[in-house]
Amino acid sequence: TNVAVVIGIIALAVELNQNNELLRSESRQALQSNDQVSLVLAMEHIDLYEKMGQTEPLSQTDQYRLGFMFTLDLRNREFEYAQLMNGALDQATWESFQEVILINHASGRG
Fold this sequence. Notes:
Blueprint: H1 2-44, H2 46-52, H3 60-85, H4 91-104
Helix pairs in contact: 1-2, 1-3, 3-4
């Protein structure tokens, strides 16, 4: 019976490891999906990014659009940070995502 217990514990350890790998994989997929959504939105609203580099005031509508886009971007970064804290994202990957923050928020309006 001791052998059966040891085999059961080994099987449980293997299953836990597989579940952890699956969770990491799903987390990476969610991160990638979030970034793709942000990129698609940026392409759909390229005029707003062009206006960010200009000096004239933004219209009220453009201010709202910009605010929503920044909020979406910051929520993505919060999700990424949570994944870093729970171990689903490694430090090097987290640091690579920081470049997106600089790109999206490097203007005087961002």
